[in-house]
Amino acid sequence: MKSLKKEQGFTLIEILAALLILSITALAFTAYFSNALTFAKANQNKTIMSNLARNALVYMQKQDFDRLEAYFNSDSATVVRNASGTREQRVGITPETFASCTTSSGGTCAFRDMFENGNLQPVMAVLRPEVNGIGYRVVIEYQKDLSRTAAAGGALLLPISATVTAAAEGAAGPGADAVTVEGYVNAQSIR
Questions:
Q1: Where in or outside the cell (predicted)?
Q2: Which of 21, 34, 92, 97 has the most neighbouring CB atoms within 10 Å?
């Protein structure tokens, strides 16, 4: 009978110690999942930005090669990067390049016909896209230093890059500084 009366169980101290160990372990897992979520969000932002850059390159590859080349080599081309050291200034197309064009008058606006029918709405949609409520800014840059000689096929290719950034600082979240994708615009004769 004595063995039936003797009941054993956990004391309050043992239960509190077990809860303390369990909560420390849960806290470590929470920090891990929080970091994993931040990393996943950063990768999502970079994926969106690289897709927007590829989209801009594909759009530019469908434009008139000769007019693009004339624009990039003209004095009216928008400077997207100033000269520094041994590098010369870079020209390209920004969302602001054709923003003030209402007619094909002069300067930069004279080149609006390089886009289909001189319609600037599609190019503005490519250069100022919005995804998931976040605005982005795309800059097309002519990479003249990558141009090859005519004998090496350089007369048939225009090296360009598309750089995507968030329109507002930090709007795209962590890890979304800038994404650059490079490509070429082919001449109509080899398309």
A1: Cell surface
A2: 97
